[in-house]
Amino acid sequence: MIQRIMAILAVALIVPDIYIYKMFIVRLTDSLLWRCLYFVPSILLLTGLALLFFFGSSSFLEDRGHWMGWFAVVFFLFVLPKLLFMIISLLGLPFHVLLDWPKTPFTLLGIAVVALLAGIIVYGSAIGKTRFEVKEVDFHASNLPAAFNGYRIVQLSDIHIGSWRGNEEAMQEAVNRVNALEPDLIVFTGDLVNHKASELDGFQDILSQLKAKDGVYSILGNHDYGPYFRWKSKTDQAKNLRQLHERQTEMGWKMLNNSHVILHKGNDSIALIGVENEGEPPFSQHGDLVKAMQGTEGMFQLLLSHNPTHWRREVLSQSDIELMLAGHTHGMQMAWGNHSPSSFIYPEWKGMYKEGERGLYVNLGLGFVGLPFRFGAWPEITLLTLQQGSAK
Fold first, then answer.
1. Domain boundaries, the chain
2. 3-state helix vs strand vs coil in the chain, percent to 5
3. I need a labelling partner for 273 at 20 to 30 A (CA). Which of 22, 34, 256, 345 fits?
């Protein structure tokens, strides 16, 4: 699989370079020096790919994910614009040959697309990944207890704290923005880390500053179990998961592992239910909704479940849960309004979805994984307010 990916990337790098060189560079300059300089970025990137292929062990790639992400950004910054330029230029050739249209309009269109795409990549990597967005959402429920009318919940998800190494200031800003909302409750819907509990080093004190009247509650996401890291043994992997539990406890977070807690306000109460990761294959399935719900029958139920596909797979058909909060999708860290590559995989990938009066809210996540990049699918802090009665 790795060999196939590397081969595809190498072809995507080499073919557009040869085309652009033959069609444009040789016509723009007679200087051998400038012609050779054109290939320097691609030679460096191809060398990087070769080094990763031949010498990049799994442990190397996993432990240096931060730098790998930036290599990927630089790679795509040079490769994707050239690839699109080549495609647009090739689309113009039949019109030029058959209809004698000039090549210039297609060349200019290609240059415009190159500039736009390059700008998106640079913006998303430099600014977009820390462009925190507070989304205010109301959820109306006719059976919400009166005392919880106007109850303010902040949802965070998919922090992927290992990706923030060296940028503690940004995480502090996010925490400050959450606390400024003065929520009644803070919930975290999974993927606190990429692989290891030790990623919290340098961030634990920052995340422990999150405060809400009724506390901070969390669940596990697929990354939190460490399935994408090559552990020396299953024992080491289990030890890492225990350490993640312990660290969250030290931060003042309360974990809901297939369990629930009853939240009280005046003489009223609601149930906050949390399941371990319950994803569609190949993602891990550790959730036990029946166990988590026991003792909450007849109450207004709020469910935390990392993967939004759980809503249709089990929650709607096998429970009366009014509202589920999820994350996981990231919107694939790229969106144009209501359109994203994520929509081809997840029917519910961002925002609020309703079935009658029952709802699912999908948070786009605060962090990033793989590419240090976000565009359109900005890092999200959700402020969800519970409202008594039906939506107007």
1. 2-126, 132-388
2. 50, 20, 35
3. 345
**SS3 per-residue string spanning 209-228:** CCCCCCCEEECCCHHHHCCC
If we measure between CA atoms, which residue out of 149, 166, 142, 136 comes closest to residue 64? 166
Q: Strand pairing partners for 352?
A: 361
pLDDT at 69: 84
Q: State the pTM of this model.
A: 0.91
* Helix or strand holding residue 69 (H, E): helix 65-99
Q: How far apart are CA 300 and CA 270, in angstroms?
A: 5
Q: What kind of architecture, by CATH, is found in domain 132-388?
A: 4-Layer Sandwich (3.60)
Amino acid at 185: L
Per-residue pLDDT, 55: 67
Give the per-residue pLDDT at 83. Answer: 95
Strands across the sheet with 358-362, in order? 259-265, 268-274, 301-304, 323-326, 358-362, 351-355
Q: What is the dihedral of CA 339, 344, 346, 347, to 10 degrees?
A: 70
* Residue ranges, the chain, pLDDT below 50: none
Is the distance from CB of 300 to CB of 265 less than 8 angstroms?
no
What confidence score (pLDDT) does residue 61 get?
54
